[in-house]
Give the backbone structure.
Amino acid sequence: QVQLVESGGGLVQAGGSLRLSCAASGSIFEISIFRVKGMGWYRQAPGKQRELVALLTSDGSANYDDSVKGRFTISRDNAKNTVYLQMNSLKPEDTAVYYCHQELSDYWGQGTQVTVSS
């Protein structure tokens, strides 16, 4: 199966920015799937359910949860086999573990912690 590794999390003050990366590795077939199929960024705050934050569909369109619309941007760089989540104007309520997810095969990364201080 494809391996998804997130990075880029950390501690940031409210109003700041972070860029999360989700790097994929695997067989040629698995990478070809990664490059064209839907990828999502999810987050899970303590005591809460995991929720979808941003979705990049197979036709290249992006969808966002209302709570992050206008602040977060999902993108893909197939040359680097990486999906990104640019997060701007961060708020304390954005604090969570962020996971990338391959929608077709239901593969998850291990997560990266984002903490936004007020």
